[in-house]
Amino acid sequence: MKKSNFAILMAMVMASGPFAVDAYLPGIPTMAEFLGTGIDAVATTVSFYIFGMALGQLIGGPMADKFDKRNLIIIGLLLYAASSLVIATATSLAVIQIARVFQAIGGGFSIVCIAPLVRMRETGNEAAKLFSLIALIMVIAPAIAPTIGALILLVGNWQTIFYFTAAYSVFVALLVWRSLPKSPVTTQPAAVAVHKRYLEVMKNKTAMRYLAVQACGYSVMMVFVTNSSLIYQHHFGLSEQMFGLVFAANTLVNVAVNRLNSYLLNSIPASKLLQIAILIQAVFVAALIVLTATDAPVSVYVLGIMGAVGMLGAIPPNSNSLFISQYSENTGAASALLGSAQFVAASLAGGLSTLMYNGTLWPPVLTMTALVVLSNLFLPRAASSKLQTA
Known about the structure:
mainly alpha; transmembrane helix; 19 helices; Growth Hormone, Chain: A; transmembrane; disordered C terminus
């Protein structure tokens, strides 16, 4: 399978996550009205999804080492589709929250297979380039998802958005079934217990630091996503359609950073580029503190968000490749641990920011500040980032 076709297909699999998280964001106010609850309560469904994604990857990771990854991706996408239909027909917040967990578990089964499949094809900076290409294509999904959701709301309701996500996942499952070749399973004895696989993965201290860096960097974005409706619609009073356009503006920086990162990988190590991206993200989050304190208008505030979130064009591709390159075995378990860690961290960070909600922008901004500080503290020194196999 050609590298470009493989990257597109993997990006489409990964895009199921952004569609599940971002497409319904413009509809959160109407969901809250339909369910008879507050916007902040409906916003918790983002954290439920993120938690389920972590759980799905923890379960799916060892399965990816033992079974055909293509079949696991298809099973995950079909579970995702079924859960989307449950959400679309639900009439209570509790049912939606539970269904969101199962929807995310299905997504986790699929997404956890991507890094091992990349690891089978490339290593080092070449792996980072492939991750960067996947990320470039995949970034279209979170960019257009809120806009698609807003357009759907013009002709339908919030339930229609989840019918759309169900149809999308079934379509991608069919593409995977037709296009992705079966993958060989690990030669490691299947008798190795799941917890021993994870313990073996966790012995690599350098990899664990990259895991923490990615978890914190990704959580910065998810704190914004969780609070995006509160920020742009409730605080700044933007319409559903304008919300979709402003949300999509994050892609401009994301794509530019992604392409620049891919180009620089030809001459600069991924570890150095990761360090630079995290520092720049910290600068933009510091700017958000100033903008919040001065009650800046949305036209300026969106620039700070674009910079902080846009750095995700470089952080995951580099940290993911540096992390997975530490392993030659147990890549499924390693990928699961990385994915689950970032989603658990994002779930906790997003949930904490909504729990602290007080009608101002300070809870999400202060949460993002703590995360970028931790990212810089966890970042390994370049000298200690050499390949270690486990």
